[in-house]
Design brief:
mainly alpha; 9 helices; globular
């Protein structure tokens, strides 16, 4: 019985301590209601702290945070892709709750506007694939690889989406144009992040950020256009928007 307890339940090799030296799994405990609920709580608590810390650093020191992540200092921050999904979900809830039209025209129905909002959010991982390439070319051609660039733009766009939440509240009560306001605020945020990351003067930071921002919109336009074409082919009404 003791020998069975000393074996890792995952790879079935001997364990010396609480973590298996062969596969990295923690010592497995019997599945009980109290333990399952405790694990769920601890995971959410850990995620909350890491998300909160990442948001704080996106506001105060985005450049050093991303550079730290590149260098391997990752235990303090949540995974950038989890953060991006979390941000996209919060943003979508905000625009739906406050009934914000993100379609760019008042002629779109609410259903279409909200569908486009959801599509834009959860295709963000696709939009950022070519955007990451432009980021690398504009800011760090020979010093980072594409994957590191993708991590950086995932962090930046997490902050970009989070900014959309208070802007949705502002637009709901003020009647301002959401698309225009978010575009301006988003550009300012990108300038702030990239200047914080790289040794750029203000002219360089502004010019490169505009090009980088345009690369994202071009990528978005191409993917959404393809989605609209497919919608027309399969007769999916919510996305059958006229060019």
């Amino acid at each position: 019985m003791e020998s069975e307890k000393a074996l890792c339940r995952n790879c079935e090799r001997p364990m010396h301590g609480e973590i298996c030296a062969h596969c990295g799994q923690k010592r497995a405990s019997p599945i009980e209601a109290r333990r399952v609920l405790g694990d769920i709580w601890s995971q959410f608590l850990e995620l909350d702290f890491k998300v909160a810390r990442a948001i704080k650093h996106l506001v105060s020191r985005p450049g050093p945070m991303i550079i730290d992540y590149w260098k391997g200092k990752r235990v303090l921050y949540t995974n950038p892709f989890k953060l991006l999904f979390f941000s996209a979900t919060g943003y979508y809830i905000a625009i739906k709750y406050y009934d914000i039209n993100v379609g760019g025209t008042d002629d779109l129905s609410k259903e279409t506007s909200h569908f486009i909002g959801a599509l834009l959010n959860y295709l963000i991982f696709v939009f950022l694939i070519p955007t990451a390439y432009f980021f690398k070319m504009l800011y760090a051609r020979n010093t980072i690889n594409w994957a590191e660039s993708y991590v950086a733009v995932s962090f930046i766009w997490s902050g970009y989406l989070m900014l959309g939440i208070p802007l949705a509240v502002l637009v709901h009560y003020s009647g301002l144009n959401y698309i225009l306001l978010r575009t301006i605020v988003g550009l300012v945020f990108i300038i702030y992040c990239t200047k914080n990351m790289f040794e750029l003067n203000w002219l360089q930071a502004i010019a490169k950020s505009i090009l980088f921002y345009l690369s994202y919109f071009i990528s978005t336009f191409v993917v959404i256009s393809l989605a609209i074409v497919v919608a027309h082919l399969v007769d999916y009404q919510p996305l059958m928007v006229r060019p």
